[in-house]
What we know:
It is a single chain. 54% of the residues lie in helices and 22% in strands. By secondary structure, it is an alpha+beta fold. Strands 5, 6, 7, 8, 9, 10, 11, 12 and 13 form a nine-stranded mixed sheet that branches. Strands 2-1-4-3 form a four-stranded antiparallel sheet. Helix 5 (207-233) crosses helix 6 and helix 8 (279-299) packs antiparallel against helix 9 (325-349). The longest helix has 56 residues, at 14-69.
Amino acid sequence: MHNTHSLKGFRFPLFWQILLTTAAILALTIGIIWSYLDSNFKSLLLQQSDTFAKTITQQAANSASEMLMASDKLALSAMLDTLVADKSSIQAMQIFDDKNKIIAQSSLTQVLPPSTNIHTYTTPIQFQDVQAGKLVLQLDNSAITDALFRSQKVLGIIIISISVLALIIAAWLATHLSTPLKKLREATKAVSRGNLNPKLPPTRNDEVGDLVNSVDNMLQGLRDKESIENKFSTYISKDIAKGILENLHTNRTPLRSVYGSVLFVDIVGFTQLCEKVKPEEVADILNQYYFLLHQAAKMYRGTVDNYIGDGAMLTFGVHKEDNKHTINAICSAQIFLRLADIMNTQRIEKGLSNLEFKLGIHCGEMLAGTIGSTERMQLTITGDTVNVAARMCEQAHRNKVIISENIFNHPATKELVLTENPILLDIKGKALPLKGHHVIGLAPKFNRLLMQQETELEAMNYE
């Protein structure tokens, strides 16, 4: 098992795969060609040598038959000398009678050391169908061996040159293929790190070029999706936009039951304010107000789900899991009030009126998903928890946060929030009044965090 895992983790680069495969094929091909040529060339040379030896011995035997019968040794020796004179490969040539006695031999016979290259050929000398003797030829094949060695040497040089050239071409081809693939790998790593504009290898007219174009098209699709998501997120919450884009294959986002916290915020006396100021100033107020809400929600893992005129609904632990959604909702409300104080200070400096707010928080079960018809749908949060939070916001004191009993007793909130004495709230649609707690402050560690965040945001321009 360990060896299997080791092999799975072994990486064999494409460059070396191509190069070694080419080298293996080349070595096998060269070995086969070399063996074939060497064997056939050697056989051809030996065959030519045998043909030459048999031809000359047969001619000599035919010419020597009458001279042998006449015992003309001088003539036989002269004939043999003539045959041997211009043929350096002939080492010795002898004529024997029928009693195997040397009758004549070439005076040019060379005395050479024993060698495996000496081949002996014997041809009978016939006279009127009677064997009168025999002719023996000793042929030195050293010249053939030398010629074969030289041929092998030349062939070896040619093969080595072809091999080197083939390996150079294979290395170039491997580099030509692997380099763009390496760049594509680096590009995909950059994409995994969030960079949708990595540097891609240049396109070309082959399969690698098609792959580069495909990756480029994929990246363009991702960039378009990101652009749509960013644009979409300017109109609705980023978490909601992401959820919609992740479910484009379905007609609607299915309703699901969630447990989280809902924060409602409302501007006090907004209707009367609109009667006193110009529409442009109303739009400016709402832009500042919505900006502060967005910042407050973002700091504590919340989502601005909906703007309802001068009111807004923020959710915590609904679109993304958050076990501390209750305390996060309270902290978000508190930092909003602190930011609102900064905004009011700026408004007073400009001679404008204060803005006052009411905030209500409740937690419980809710339904999150898409509601509406196929022609017009909306992704929202519904349920009794939402209604209670909205009604609590209506009954909250000015510039204070009121939380429900569920929020107050939640494990993530308990002993971390300082509140006034509980009050009873008459909630429309509820048979019995509900307890509410106006928040006075938070535990010291949260207050320090709020002060730090307030200082950071105070440096920002809300105008």
